[in-house]
Design brief:
- InterPro entries: NPHP3-like_N, P-loop_NTPase.
- The protein is mainly α and 166 residues long.
- It has a single domain, classed as Rossmann fold, CATH 3.40.50.
- It is 48% helix and 11% strand.
- The chain has seven helices and three strands; from the N terminus they run αβαααβαβαα.
- Strands 1-2-3 form a three-stranded parallel sheet, with helices on both faces.
- α5 links the parallel β2 and β3.
Length: 166
């Protein structure tokens, strides 16, 4: 979380001094919240974060909202619709940055597998995607190592830091 927090702080600072329309959205995955965090809810959170940075509501978001049931206006539960809306919102920004922290803590039984291709799609759409994860979940390692344009940075505790801590 510390590294991601620094990235988010730096992005917010950059956006505050840039004349360009820059969107920033982030998700911090948590093992404790894996029941509540679904691919659709993650996408909806990203939609909410980006749309709140715009002065007007994108037409695609407004029309998707109008199609929702009157009993459940709070959440687009259809993952495909949420994906479509998110990709549409990207067009309202000159540049968009996504930060996903602790992807390895996201439920791997279907949810993570549904979300990883969307990360790739966001990157292919011109957004910058920053993902942190422990190095051992093989589905994550394989997914990102098979993709061009991915830079992997390995972080490890240094011996002198461990000595100070202990």
């Amino acid at each position: 979380l510390l590294r991601s927090s620094r990235v988010i702080d730096d992005l917010n600072h950059m956006a505050s001094i840039s004349p360009d329309n820059i969107g920033i959205a982030f998700i911090c995955f948590s093992y404790k919240e894996r029941e509540q965090q679904t691919a659709a809810s993650v996408l909806c959170s990203l939609i909410h974060q980006l749309s709140s940075q715009l002065s007007t509501i994108p037409v695609l978001l407004e029309s998707s909202y109008d199609k929702l049931s009157p009993l459940n206006k709070a959440l687009i539960s259809d993952e495909a619709t949420a994906r479509e809306v998110l990709l549409g919102i990207l067009k309202a920004f000159k540049r968009v940055f996504f930060v996903f922290d602790a992807l390895d803590e996201f439920d791997e039984e279907g949810q993570r597998q549904a979300l990883i291709p969307i990360f790739h799609e966001l990157g292919s759409s011109g957004a910058s995607v920053f993902v942190t994860s422990r190095p051992y979940p093989l589905d994550i390692v394989h997914s990102f190592s098979a993709t061009g344009g991915v830079v992997a940075i390995t972080l490890a505790a240094q011996e002198e830091h461990l000595k100070i801590y202990i």
